[in-house]
């Protein structure tokens, strides 16, 4: 590895810190606004999200992929269990780890959250819109993803990518769904 100058290192870490803090402030506000009607906080939503995409997970997995302390993952999972969104279990072959799985009510909540996602209420998306207008797509953020991969590892990024593949499979685009439904209704009217 090439030796970094102290100045170069300081400039990079300050730049990424300031940008990260600014982005997080906006992300946090948008995220809270999205989940507030469901009486969830960000940790609870993140736990539901991870459990959904992993089709159940250990508390350690939740902590790792949710970038939270194990006690935080456990305590918020317990609150979700009390509300009927998760179940806790132990595996016969692995009594040391606690596992969670979404209940039917929890899966319905995740689907409802996805259905009610409103892009117009997300400032990060609006901030990136001019780039999409120019280049025809949102930024890939490959450099940032590489940094995160180098910090958290391939497993983290594999789960990260799986969530986006799952979302694409769900095809929750309201306008597209409505258009298809309207077309079916018109076809029935013609027949």
Task: Describe the model.
The protein has 191 residues and is mostly helical. The chain has two domains: 117 residues, Arc Repressor Mutant, subunit A (Orthogonal Bundle), CATH 1.10.10.10; 52 residues. Helix content is 70%, strand content 9%. The protein contains nine helices and three strands; from the N terminus they run ααβααββααααα. A three-stranded antiparallel sheet has the order 1-3-2.
Short précis:
The protein is mainly α and 191 residues long. It has helices spanning 6-35, 42-54, 59-65, 70-82, 104-115, 123-135, 142-152, 154-170, 174-190, and strands at residues 57-58, 86-91, 94-102.
Helix content: 55-70%
- Beta percentage is 5-15%
What CATH architecture label of the largest domain applies? Orthogonal Bundle
Number of separate domains: 2
| Alpha-carbon Rg, integer | 20 Å
Number of strands: 3
Strand order of the largest sheet: 1-3-2
N-to-C SSE string, H for helix and E for strand: HHEHHEEHHHHH
Separation of termini? Answer: 70 Å
Tell me the name of the CATH homologous superfamily of the largest domain: Winged helix-like DNA-binding domain superfamily/Winged helix DNA-binding domain
Mean of residue pLDDT? Answer: 88
Please mark out the parts with pLDDT under 50 across 5 or more consecutive residues, or reply none.
none
CATH topology of the largest domain: Arc Repressor Mutant, subunit A
Number of helices: 9
Main sheet: strands, sense, barrel: 3 strands, antiparallel
Class per helix and strand makeup: mainly alpha
Main CATH class of the largest domain: Mainly Alpha
